Amino acid sequence: MTSVLRAQGLGKKYHRDWVLTGCTLDVPAGHVTGLVGPNGAGKSTLLNLAAGMLAPTSGTIEVCGGVPGSGAEQLAKVGFVAQDTPVYAGLTVAEHLRLGARLNAGWDDALARHRIERLGLDPDRRAGKLSGGQRAQLALTLAIAKRPELLLLDEPVAALDPLARREFLRDLMETVVEHGLSVVLASHLIADLERVCDHLIVLVAAQVRLTGEVDELLATHHRLTGPRRDETSLPADQEVISASHTDRQSTLVVRTEGPILDPAWTVGAIGLEDLVLAYLARPAAGLRPSLELLR
Q: Model pTM?
């Protein structure tokens, strides 16, 4: 398996606070990877480390076979759209494309101009006059037209309305298929991740709590409902991720690769949002995260 991003014991510290610690990851090439977690979990820090915008405090990170930010050749391999989808308000769309061409040796001007035309963006319109969705599409165009191997997207649709989000994600997937990009997409919006991602990373409290291919993760996690019991009584191969109890009933989310044979349990499938929430709740000291963390 070819890795597009590999981290070993990666950590980043600001003053006395670790915003990312002990991060070990192996993200396969050719996937759209969803990066999810509550605010302050370290998502933006991980993406900035991968883009070469930050240097690690501890551990190592390798992106597209090289050290992030180590030179022009390495920088050309990575496209990055930061959380505020940065564009220059005073520059026109056409001026953005000319700037992209000057700054990127591998710039594909035909691709950039085709995207702008297909999206209906006026080349003479200043970026500050564009809608939020149009600015996001312009930023994505700049990132894609440099022809990167890896595209890093930090909450690119967070400020968009539902229709603009759907259009952005549909356009992203078309681009991924057409150009064979690997993508790491940070988002709070699990429904959006379900549409586009086939690989998942869950960050909680500056640490990786879960990583893997989405289909495999969903196949190995189950919801068990049955008479109330102590979850420590389950077989050793059934890892309890979360548990809730009433006077008479227990509901558990467990991870196992084997069959669940106890007839007392009703076994149900688990969706991506419930899976993520189970892992968000797991390290908390008695406080269950709200769904608002993911919206």
A: 0.89
pLDDT digits (tens, 9 = 90+) for 18-77: 999 999 999 999 999 999 998 889 999 999 999 999 999 999 999 999 999 999 999 999
Q: Which residue range(s) make up the domain with 174?
A: 3-214
Please tell me whether residues 160 and 238 are part of one structural domain: no
Around 287, how many Cα atoms within 13 Å sit in the side-chain half-sphere? Answer: 4
Of 164, 181, 214, the residue at which a domain comes to its end is 214
Is the separation of the CB atoms in 172 and 100 below 8 Å? no
Domain count, the chain: 2
Look at the alpha carbons of 232, 286, 207, 31 in this order and tell me if their dihedral is positive or negative.
Answer: positive
Round to whole Å and give the CA distance between 152 and 182: 9
Domain boundary among 163, 190, 214: 214
Separation of alpha carbons 221 and 7, rounded Å? 25
